[in-house]
């Protein structure tokens, strides 16, 4: 069977170098379900104090934690709204 | 095709295949079993698909899917089975999907009887399922007509993108008569740019009947309404028989019309020659109201004969709008009157109407 | 920085109407990802049912035919028989597939129709307001089992995956869940295998997906995911129930 499923390796530390990554969250698509916050291994996401148009407190990267994200994409995998884009070095 | 001796159900099946129907989903129920049996023998030979479903309800939903996928498709059943199909027929009317549904009527209501009746008239002509919709209803009188009407029903269904019901009965279904099965000149089915085929190089196609916005459904209801008005203008079919000098007009369809024709012929041959004619609706929806209304200008007495306790009589009454006198004779319960028996009954109504005229 | 994940192409740019944390959204996304990765977007046809997922056609950009409630397997059968080269899959809830549509489902499986059933099990009739479904757990309170489902009068939760795995016509059946990233990855793998089995014409395939329904379970999204782990999976064990090699 064609191996197509992009499973993301658990350990993002390759050859001793810490992987860097970041994410963008579409604030209007987010419904504040907090899955990404719960399942992010680095705990770098939180709910914003601001509301989106629909009245949800949307999720966003914590200010001082941008470099904490390793681009592991676990948040995107758990996001029901497909609102998260993941970037990696 | 040359003339063959076939029973009604087989004639329908072969005629459907000749019309290019490659897909049939059915379920056993007397008195139409020969139709799926015939299809199960023939369709594999013309690389078609015959599938006996787990219920009539499932079969009609397979018809819905096959029609949505762009196929000429048919199902058949008998009264109780047709009741099970009503929900999906309503969906197909709403989704504007063409299909041919054959009802070989049997005695009803409930389990009723395995022979024949005309007791599904309302169910067929008033939509039968939920919501504002109608289906075209064709009423054959002979095995030849069963073949011809089936053949044309696929074009009707495609032209108007709507389900078409062929309303036979157990007598016609089981009766064998010589028939010439029509053959199609060009077999290629019409272009169906609504059909789901996989959105290759085009926009997605969605066949649905749910409208979350009320105003959208309102528009859709009126769109369907306009379609039904168009059908009413263009697709009314009927026959008249010895109406010109008639004093009384019989209104009957299907097997009832054949029995009535025999009765009329007998009465006309008798010494004092009762002058009775007949109007035979060939489409029960759209109903031939105009010809009945026009006939009432020179004939005041109408004799409605049905093989049930009276359903088409309502449409006759609606057509006449009070301008004629209606006599009714119903014979439910699959007990067929012979032509001479019916002739005596008609004669009694005829003399009754003559006496009233003399007063 | 290289972008390694974004919204799948087959998913239209429209926010889902589902409730926050709803499993339907995740499943729609997984299906769209697979349609992209397996290059099936131009050959796929789905039969969305009446229910929370009725608007699947607004989100997944493929040909679709709305099936009457419970009749997905029959409509899909009709489509597949006419379009054997298309990937045909039904998308059904637990009421749709295991209550009103039981006969259609069982017989499509028994005939070995080359279709895939995406069976979303959230233990309630969600769109209609959270009534009891065939998969409602014992003791679970719903709007029509207010005192908790009682086996004496309402029977036990129906295990469709196990039931269908006894049918010769089925070739791949797995029960998965979408209540955490690990399970979501497994769920995607399962749907991908089911689609592949359909393409390889091995038989009827079904993926039962335990899906959170926070609003009707009266929990917040994360609690509903936890409830699936702590309670639901005990009644509906995950895993492959049938696989023809």
How much of the polypeptide of chain A forms β-strand, as a percent range?
15-25%
* Structural category of chain B: alpha/beta
The secondary structure category of chain A is alpha+beta
Percent range of helical residues of chain A: 10-25%
Question: What pair of chains forms the biggest interface?
Answer: B-C, 40 and 37 residues
| Gyration radius over CA of chain A | 14 Å
Description:
- The complex is a heterotrimer of chains A (89), B (359) and C (245).
- Chain A contains 2 helices and 4 strands, in the order E-H-E-E-H-E.
- Chain A is of the alpha+beta class.
- Chain A has a single domain, classed as Alpha-Beta Plaits.
- In chain A, 39% of the residues are buried.
- By secondary structure, chain B is an alpha/beta fold.
- Chain B folds into 2 domains: 4-234, Rossmann fold (3-Layer(aba) Sandwich); 238-358, Rossmann fold (3-Layer(aba) Sandwich), CATH 3.40.50.920.
- Chain B has 13 helices and 15 strands.
- Chain B has helices at 8-18, 34-42, 56-68, 79-84, 86-94, 121-125, 143-160, 170-174, 214-234, 254-269, 289-295, 312-320, 339-358; strands at residues 3-7, 23-26, 49-52, 73-77, 99-105, 136-138, 163-169, 176-180, 206-207, 238-241, 248-251, 276-281, 283-285, 301-306, 325-330.
- In chain B, helix 1 packs parallel to helix 7.
- In chain C, the strands form 2 sheets. In chain C, strands 3-2-4-5-9-8-10 form a 7-stranded mixed β-sheet, sandwiched between helices.
- Chain C is globular, with a radius of gyration of 17 Å.
- Chain C starts with a strand and ends with a strand.
- The chains are: A alpha+beta (89), B alpha/beta (359), C alpha/beta (245).
- Chains in contact: A-C, B-C.
- The B-C interface holds B 23, 25, 49, 51, 53-55, 57-59, 61-71, 73, 87-88, 91, 95, 196-201, 204-210, 212 and C 41-45, 47, 50, 54-55, 57, 61-68, 71, 74-83, 85-87, 103-104, 106-107, 111.
- Strand 9 (206-207) of chain B pairs parallel with strand 3 (63-65) of chain C, so a sheet runs across the interface.
